[in-house]
Write a structure and sequence with these properties.
The complex is a heterodimer. Chain A is α+β, with helices and mostly antiparallel strands. Chain A has one domain. Chain A contains 6 helices and 5 strands. In chain A, the strands form 2 sheets. A 3-stranded antiparallel sheet of chain A has the order 3-4-5, with helices on one face. In chain A, strands 1-2 form a two-stranded antiparallel sheet. In chain A, a hairpin with a 7-residue loop joins strand 1 and strand 2. In chain A, helix 3 runs antiparallel to helix 6. Chain B is α/β, with parallel strands linked by helices. Chain B has a single domain, classed as Divalent-metal-dependent TIM barrel enzymes (TIM Barrel, Alpha-Beta Barrel). Chain B has 5 helices and 6 strands; from the N terminus they run E-H-E-H-H-E-E-E-H-E-H. Chain B has a 4-stranded parallel sheet. Chain B has a two-stranded antiparallel sheet with strand order 4-5. In chain B, a hairpin with a 2-residue loop joins strand 4 and strand 5. The relative contact order of chain B is 0.15. The chains are: A alpha+beta, B alpha/beta. Chains A and B meet through helix 2 of A and loops of B. Chain A: This is SCO6045-like C-terminal domain-containing protein. Chain A: Pfam families: SCO6045_C. Chain A: InterPro entries: SCO6045-like_C (IPR058711).
Chain lengths: 152, 140
Amino acid sequence: MSASGGGDLAARQAELVATLVAGGPLPPGFAPGPVDAARRALLRKRAGDVARHWPLLAAALGGSWSATFARWAADRPTNGSLRDGWDLARELHRRGELPPLGAEELAAREAATRYDGATAPRPRRLPALARVGGTVAVQFAGRVRLVRPAHR
Amino acid sequence: MPIALEPIAALFDWPDDELDEADFLTEILDATGATLLLDIANVHANARNRGADPLALLDRLPLGRVAYAHVAGGAEQGGFYHDTHTDPVPPAVLDLVGELCARHRPPALLLERDGRWPPASALRAELDAIAAASGYPAVT
């Protein structure tokens, strides 16, 4: 360990983490190609895990799922796969790019669970109705039912 | 409870590190008394991605302290070998199983597979190939 001490090392490690997960610049001395390969590999792993939490969203996007997720996630460190998929689904809905299956999955989640976009989602205690575009889901006593499917 | 240390598959190195992988592992195992969980696919990945010889690493590791070994599949992508756990075990990794066991056979080997599951027959064939390469009896 150099005389400059652990504080310097910690700061350099934080810089590297920002490069890998938050779109930060490449710190001096690192090989650009290999670091970028690691960054992309981490995005692929995240995409796979988010797909397990949001199977209909991922299936609806099919072959473009990995690239769609990677574009969205490249400068966003993870908040956990449930929230990452939720945030992405809402973003796609805002852009008018959420496929029908994804809209139905999002509506079902919104009806069952309260998520403010900033803290951990919590189950809703009261009956609720959620709309995502033309898709409507209702929740009563924890059971969710899609009352109007997405327009296809 | 005994603790075993598993070296990772790394795509890049710290630019001014003072120890290479073998020196780092040997030093930390000596200092802690931990055993080594040797992932032979990671040995392949690191050598392939660093342009180094995997046998040179095997020859410098304390193989007598290997608690058991991991074996996994991976894929070449974008000029790098990725330790994906979702692809078949490549022949180069099976060859390394043989090289490891010729030097010092670990008490057990485990196949890691995390997704994109093949048919059961393909998985059984991979297990048998690992057993054959290591000199252990066939699994199936």
